[in-house]
Amino acid sequence: MINSKIESLQLLRFIAAILVVSVHLDFEFGHIGVDIFFVLSGFIISYVTSKKTKAFFINRLIRIIPIYWFITILFAFTLLILPDVFELSEFNFIYLLKSLFFIPFNNLETGHYPLVIYGWTLNYEIFFYFIFSLAILLNKKYVIQSFFIIFLLIYFCNLYLNNFISKVYSNPIIFEFAFGVIIFIFYKNYKKIDFFKFRVFIIYFILIIFVIYLYKEFNKFRLVAYGIPSVIILLIFLSINKFNFPKKIVLLGDSSYCLYLIHPYIFQFSRKFFSSFYISAEILNIILLFNVILCVIISIYLHKYFELPIQNYLKKYFK
What we know:
By secondary structure, this protein is mostly helical. It has helices at residues 8-22, 32-49, 56-81, 93-100, 119-138, 143-160, 164-168, 175-190, 198-217, 222-239, 247-254, 256-274, 281-318. Helices cover 72% and strands 0% of the residues. The longest helix has 38 residues, at 281-318.
């Protein structure tokens, strides 16, 4: 969990999740939510390990696995008994195993998609955690320096290997994690920047204009169109960290992972159900908005009464 001194990042986590959800409302720029998550992960892991490195990898697995495995197994079971409910998906035991153990595969020749569609991002997350764990083992005093050495070595090795997994892990999107690590280095040395100083406000205003320009001019190059704007967005949210955010904002941030994983299926069920009715565009927009609210409510309950209790139990068990 993010330290309370950076509660603005909880708000950013929720916004990133909502941006991903907004893709189902035909908001194309919403794809940047994934890139924000990647850059944010790079920052948070650097921040966390600067304070404590013990049991790092186990703690990250406890954070990622329970709810992901639950949704993956539930989805696989649904595919088995109701194969026509979901589009472009079918039950496959090998796919299930690879999804559960974060092994990239070409799902029905459509690309890098585990059974739970946004699980592809978790494969990158686990890959990043693994490299950071190696860096901790290599040198606890110089974790970040070790990380960059291992990260670049693995990246260039993957460029020369010719298989599906190496192609996945040589995708330039993985550099967004490195961007987050670099931001942490910046934050560690310049954390006292005041957003409300006029010159800082002007700089951020220019950067926001730059974000819009990058998105419009370099839309085909994700690292530029989404990665660099994600860096700028994270810097802005770090600079407003002096605010005292309500506990509800923190809760929304904590439940954003559940929201991120479950929302595609709520939208798919809704579309399947209402497709047999003649519905006007206005009513459909209201239904889609209701879907967003429903996704948020379900994710909060899943986090409070399923994800959090399991995490607490596993932390005590492994302690």
